[in-house]
Amino acid sequence: MAEALHQLGSLASYHDDLPGCEVLLSLASSAELPSASDSRAVIINKAAAIQPVEDHTPTRADEQARIRAAGGQVFYHNGCRVMGALAMSRAIGDHALRPYGVIADPDVAHYARQPGDEFLLLASDGLWAVLSNQLCGPEAAHGDY
């Protein structure tokens, strides 16, 4: 699944004027959660909200190091952004920022499902900008917030 996501990023057409996209995948039968964006997968179980993959943002030290090593910069412009434009450090598309360290390679979390796991919440950065994992967690799922 991670390889398919990487190939998708490689095959996307190159257009400087077109935006990129975010991808977050999961298979119910799989314990693999590949992510290449600032979208987030959160596993909600009876006790907690578990985030297996850290968001791909230019605020992460490892992501900043890769961006800087490629000759890119991270600027603060309405949030941290690669070259002052992109608020994530990995994305499918955004080919104009490839020379500056933006990549489509996913991080893959391997999560062993637990008996108390109830559901997997997949959402874009728009939700996570206003709600924490915990606010979307067990309390919210059961109406106890």
What are the SSEs and their pairings?
Layout: H1 2-11, E1 32-35, E2 40-45, E3 49-50, H2 61-69, E4 74-76, E5 80-82, E6 107-110, E7 117-123, H3 125-128, H4 138-141
Antiparallel strand pairs: 1-6, 2-3, 2-7, 4-5
Q: Considering DSSP H and I runs of 4 or more, what fraction of the residues is helical?
A: 10-25%
Secondary-structure-based class equals alpha+beta
Radius of gyration: 16 Å
Strand numbers in spatial order across the main sheet: 3-2-7
How does the major sheet shape up?
3 strands, antiparallel
Unreliable stretches: 13-18
Quick one: overall form? elongated
Average pLDDT score: 80
User: Ends: how far apart?
Assistant: 35 Å
The percent range for strand residues is 15-25%
**Contiguous helical run count:** 4
Q: Give the strand tally.
A: 7
| SSE order, one letter for each helix or strand | HEEEHEEEEHH
